[in-house]
């Protein structure tokens, strides 16, 4: 089975440990164990006492009842039986695609987006058409284009909402129109929902609350600031979840007793995590947009309170060379747009620690005007 190299991951695997000012990541600034375990009324002693008493057996195979219940509460129409724990959203996407896509299937994938969403279906023998989002259209997809791509045999539409790398959002009205198009041919709509817009004005709905053949994948890695615990999940209707169960047994047994306990703790305290992260997104987005206003060498379609942004270079041609030089000479890491198939751009993860963002942007300007 042939598969393309994963552009972003290959870049980060090589360079992320070399950065002094890492403004490449799409996670809202990760939290320490100490911060996590002492949020609100919580205290770490209680957590560790419970953990000390835990046997390190396989634990709950699909995720503990507490985990599945907490996750189901993130949706309007989902019961705990529809939730399966996975190894991050990466594991969730892999499971859903592996379980449903067969050679010869037709798949439509938003592009640019997360590479799993088009290169896994391709590797499974599907014919993949890109549904391009373009900068001229504020990185938003065009429904008419989807109507020209859809076929009677389209098996699945793969979306990433909010979008990595651009930070743009398909709001509920538009998603409802996408569902109508998918419904006409009975296609699944898989939406990777790891980026939740952190403001009160963006109207976004999970695909599973809009469409019976909707599949949501998600994790605690981005909006919930804890990629280190490697916990994600799939949500789908009961019949599709049963298909996932079968394939899941071949790819993972469980996500681990410790990780599950941490995940439950985070989900029980999600309001505190989200409050923290709303503040970070708001403050840092202001820093980013103020910088953009005074930096003629780049432009930006401003992200919708989502922890990733995609800048366009106005003066640099080779984004990959520039990003390498930026890291070597200035200690600043971004992800070149070429890694998403969009040269002349870069992903700028502005939800880093504030001091890192401020110094990173200052140095980025120096490099741009060198
Ligand atoms: C859209 C998207 N999905 C999934 C992932 C991976 O998530 P996880 O760390 O939960 O596996 C990423 C990471 O960058 C992502 O951007």
From TrEMBL:
Molecular functions (GO terms) = catalytic activity; pyridoxal phosphate binding
Q: What InterPro entries does this protein's entry cite?
A: Aminotransferase_I/II_large (IPR004839), PyrdxlP-dep_Trfase (IPR015424), PyrdxlP-dep_Trfase_major (IPR015421), PyrdxlP-dep_Trfase_small (IPR015422)
Q: Name the SUPFAM superfamilies on file.
A: PLP-dependent transferases
Q: Which domain of life is it from?
A: Bacteria
Q: Which residues form the Aminotransferase class I/classII large domain?
A: 54-355
What NCBIfam families does the database record attribute to this sequence? PRK07324.1
What name has this protein been given in UniProt? Transaminase
- The organism named in the record is Dellaglioa algida DSM 15638
């Amino acid at each position: 089975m042939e598969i393309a190299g994963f552009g972003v991951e290959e870049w980060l695997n090589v360079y992320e440990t070399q950065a002094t000012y890492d403004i490449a990541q799409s996670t809202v600034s990760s939290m320490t164990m100490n911060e996590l375990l002492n949020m609100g009324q919580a205290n770490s002693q209680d957590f560790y006492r419970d953990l000390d008493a835990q046997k390190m057996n396989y634990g709950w195979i699909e995720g503990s009842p507490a985990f599945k219940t907490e996750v189901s509460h993130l949706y309007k129409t989902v019961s705990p039986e529809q939730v399966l724990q996975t190894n991050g959203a990466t594991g969730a996407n892999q499971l859903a695609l592996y379980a449903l896509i067969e050679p010869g299937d037709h798949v439509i994938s938003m592009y640019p987006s997360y590479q799993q969403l088009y290169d896994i279906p391709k590797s499974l023998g599907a014919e993949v058409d890109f549904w391009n989002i373009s900068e001229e259209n504020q990185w938003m997809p065009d429904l008419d284009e989807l109507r020209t791509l859809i076929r009677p045999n389209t098996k699945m539409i793969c979306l990433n909402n909010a979008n990595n790398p651009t930070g743009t959002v398909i709001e509920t009205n538009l998603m409802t129109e996408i569902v109508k198009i998918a419904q006409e041919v009975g296609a699944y709509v898989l939406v990777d929902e790891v980026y939740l817009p952190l403001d009160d004005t963006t109207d976004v709905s999970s695909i599973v609350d809009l469409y019976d053949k909707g599949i949501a994948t998600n994790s605690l890695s981005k909006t919930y600031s804890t990629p280190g615990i490697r916990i994600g999940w799939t949500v789908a209707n009961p019949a599709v979840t049963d298909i996932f169960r079968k394939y899941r047994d071949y790819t993972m047994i469980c996500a681990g007793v410790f990780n599950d306990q941490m995940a439950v703790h985070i989900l029980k305290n999600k309001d505190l995590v989200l409050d923290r992260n709303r503040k970070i997104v708001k403050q840092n987005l202001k820093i980013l947009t103020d910088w953009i206003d005074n930096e003629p060498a780049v432009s930006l379609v401003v992200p919708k309170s989502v922890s990733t942004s995609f800048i366009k270079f106005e003066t640099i041609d080779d984004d990959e060379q520039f990003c390498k030089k930026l890291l070597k000479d200035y200690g600043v890491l971004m992800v070149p747009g070429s890694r998403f198939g969009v040269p002349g751009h870069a992903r700028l993860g502005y939800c880093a620690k504030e001091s890192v963002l401020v110094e990173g942007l200052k140095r980025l300007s120096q490099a741009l005007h060198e």
